[in-house]
Every structure is written in structure tokens, then in C-alpha cells.
Automatic annotation (TrEMBL):
Lineage: Bacteria, Pseudomonadati, Pseudomonadota, Gammaproteobacteria, Vibrionales
Membrane topology, as annotated: Single-pass membrane protein
Keyword field: Cell membrane, Electron transport, Heme, Iron, Membrane, Metal-binding, Transmembrane, Transmembrane helix, Transport
InterPro entries per the UniProt record, alphabetical: Cytochrome_c-type_ET, Multihaem_cyt_sf, NapC/NirT/NrfH, NapC/NirT_cyt_c_N, NapC/NirT_cytc_sf
Binding site for heme 2: C84, C87, H88, H185
Main subcellular location: membrane
Residue numbers binding heme 4: C176, C179, H180
Gene source species: Photobacterium gaetbulicola Gung47
Binding site for heme 1: C53, C56, M60, D106
Protein name (record): Cytochrome c-type protein
UniProt PTM comment: Binds 4 heme groups per subunit.
SUPFAM superfamilies according to UniProt: Multiheme cytochromes
MF GO annotations: electron transfer activity; heme binding; metal ion binding
Length: 189
């Protein structure tokens, strides 16, 4: 008995031409996958997790260690007061998608290994801190206000200094980040 002839089609031996398609196809799939992070609900929920952010930021910079030592992670109440995305990802759908697509570019940076523990402080932190600070100033510290509402503050029980500043900040055209820069991370030197 002779072996049955393999069926043509899906399982037939790929032609050379088709094989050439693999690298390009692979790269395309990778890029689409990265962009899809911004689009799918699953991606959205998963990527809002601290673990996801830790995946790259641990070992690349000292951001996670600083955050974990800060009052939004370590405090007398023992609650995680704010995750990375609470402060960095806008809640509205479209800004969120836009930001995630922007962040997909980070993946490409990471793969090229541009940022590491040696060069983060001197070459990258100043630029990144400035970018994020600018965003907070532009949007009037919007993410802070998801949780903190000045009109809810008990001024009687705040220090005189804090109470006075919070009550006058609006009139003085100041926003949270003007006084609370470095709330979760070290500031650039
Ligand atoms: C795939 C790796 C990777 C993941 C996952 C990741 N980051 Fe990043 N992140 C980077 C890289 C690389 C940079 C530096 C980008 C640059 O040099 O412009 C960066 C920069 C940033 C910045 C600086 C501002 C900016 O827009 O570049 C913030 C804020 C940030 N990440 C927050 C987060 C948060 C929040 C998460 C989780 C939701 C997260 N990152 C997940 C790799 C990652
Ligand atoms: C309480 C809000 C808050 C939390 C939580 C937070 N950040 Fe930030 N982050 C900021 C602010 C504000 C800045 C702007 C610079 C500054 O004032 O420190 C910033 C700046 C950054 C930068 C730019 C580099 C730098 O040193 O300024 C990166 C990267 C970043 N954050 C990533 C993260 C990641 C990853 C997490 C979670 C591990 C996180 N952040 C948690 C508020 C926060
Ligand atoms: C997801 C909610 C959330 C977000 C977003 C958030 N915070 Fe907080 N923040 C808290 C909670 C809860 C506490 C109280 C933690 C505790 O029990 O000590 C706190 C504490 C603080 C404190 C007091 C810290 C101390 O030393 O005791 C300051 C100042 C503060 N936040 C400023 C900010 C600023 C500025 C931003 C935006 C960059 C921000 N927070 C974003 C929930 C949040
Ligand atoms: C003009 C400066 C200024 C601005 C603007 C400002 N703060 Fe404050 N804030 C202070 C000072 C000063 C303190 C008390 C000293 C400290 O703990 O850093 C304080 C304390 C706090 C505390 C701790 C209060 C307590 O009694 O435990 C929180 C929370 C806080 N600020 C949140 C915010 C948020 C959110 C915004 C933006 C809506 C904001 N602050 C804007 C100056 C300011």
C-alpha cells in the first residue's frame, strides 16, 4: 500500500514565496497586537493593573520602588490608595485609548532597551518627568481629582498651611501638581 497523498491546501508544503511572508507577517502581527492593547476591553482592564506596569518599569527604572515607598501605597491605613493607572490613565474612553496607543510606542522603546537603571536618572527622568508634569498642569490635575475633591476637604482639621493653600489655590490659578510634585516619585535633580 502506498502512502496517501497529502491533501493540497492548508497542510501542503509551503512555497518559498509564502515563507518569505513570515517575517513581515510576524512584525505586522506584533504591531497590530500592540495597538490592539488600546482597543479591546480585555486589554483595557488588564493593562490598568499595577502588575502590567510593573512588567516593564521594574528593572528599567526606579519608579516602582519609589511609588511603593510613597503614601499612596504605604500608609497607616494599609490601603493601596492609588494604582499607577489611577494617576496616569484618564478614565474617559477616548483619552484612554489614545494614551494606550501612545504607550504602545513605549513597548518598542523597551525592546530596543533604550532606558535602563544606569541611564534613567541622568538621561531620561528629566524629560519624562517634564512631560508628565506638563500633562497634569494642562488638565488641571484631573486624575488627582478623581479621588480628591477640594470642596470635600475638612479645612478645620488640616494644618493651617494646607488649609489656607487649598482654599486659595483656585484664585491663585494653582493646581495640585504645582505644590505636590514628587508625590509618588523622586523628582529629577
Ligand atoms: C512594555 C513596557 C511598558 C509597560 C507595560 C508600561 N510602560 Fe510605561 N514606559 C515604558 C517606557 C519604555 C517608557 C519611556 C518612554 C519614552 O522614553 O518616551 C515609559 C514611560 C512611562 C511614563 C512617562 C510618560 C510617557 O508618556 O512616556 C509613564 C507615566 C508611564 N510609562 C506609566 C505607565 C503605566 C501607568 C503603565 C501601566 C498601565 C505602564 N507605564 C506600563 C514602558 C512600559
Ligand atoms: C499619586 C499619583 C501617582 C501614582 C500612584 C503614580 N504616579 Fe507616576 N507620576 C505622577 C506624577 C504627578 C508625575 C510627574 C512628576 C512628579 O511630580 O513626580 C509622575 C511621573 C511619572 C513618570 C515620569 C518619570 C518621573 O520620574 O517623573 C513615570 C515613568 C511614572 N510616573 C510612572 C508611574 C508608574 C509605573 C506608577 C506605578 C508603579 C506610577 N507612576 C504611580 C503621579 C503618580
Ligand atoms: C485612586 C485615588 C487617588 C488618586 C488618583 C490620588 N490620590 Fe492622593 N490619596 C488618596 C488616598 C486614599 C490618600 C490617603 C492615604 C492614607 O491613608 O494615608 C491619599 C493621600 C494623599 C496625600 C497625603 C499624603 C501624605 O503624606 O499623607 C496627598 C498630598 C495626595 N494624596 C495628593 C494627591 C495628588 C497630588 C494626586 C494626583 C497626582 C493624587 N493624590 C491622586 C487617593 C488618591
Ligand atoms: C498652593 C499649594 C497647594 C496646592 C495647589 C495644593 N496643595 Fe495640597 N497641600 C499643600 C500643603 C502645604 C499641604 C500640607 C503639607 C504637606 O503635607 O505637604 C497639603 C496637604 C495636602 C493633603 C494632606 C491633607 C491632610 O491633612 O492630610 C492632601 C490630601 C492634599 N494636599 C491634596 C491636594 C490636592 C488633591 C490638590 C489639588 C486639588 C492640592 N492638594 C493642591 C499645598 C497645596
Amino acid at each position: 500500500m502506498s502512502n496517501p497523498q497529502p491533501k493540497k491546501g492548508l497542510w501542503s508544503k509551503p512555497s518559498k514565496k509564502w515563507l518569505l511572508g513570515i517575517p513581515l507577517g510576524g512584525i505586522l502581527a506584533f504591531i497590530l497586537g500592540a495597538f490592539a492593547l488600546g482597543g479591546f476591553h480585555f486589554g483595557m482592564t488588564y493593562t490598568n493593573n499595577n502588575d502590567f506596569c510593573y512588567g516593564c518599569h521594574v528593572g528599567m527604572d526606579t519608579i516602582v520602588e519609589e511609588y511603593e515607598a510613597s503614601p499612596h501605597f504605604t500608609n497607616t491605613k494599609g490601603v493601596v490608595a492609588a494604582t499607577c493607572s489611577d494617576c496616569h490613565v484618564p478614565q474617559e474612553f477616548f483619552p484612554k485609548v489614545a494614551l494606550k496607543i501612545g504607550a504602545s510606542v513605549d513597548i518598542i522603546h523597551m525592546i530596543t532597551g533604550k532606558i535602563n537603571l544606569e541611564n534613567f536618572e541622568s538621561e531620561h527622568r528629566p524629560r519624562l518627568a517634564e512631560k508628565v508634569t506638563h500633562e497634569f498642569k494642562e488638565n488641571d490635575s484631573k486624575q488627582c481629582r478623581y479621588c480628591h475633591d477640594v470642596t470635600q476637604m475638612d479645612f478645620e482639621n488640616q494644618s493651617r498651611n494646607a488649609s489656607r493653600r487649598h482654599q486659595t489655590m483656585e484664585a491663585r490659578g494653582l493646581t495640585c501638581i504645582d505644590c505636590h510634585a514628587g508625590i509618588a516619585h523622586k523628582l529629577p535633580e
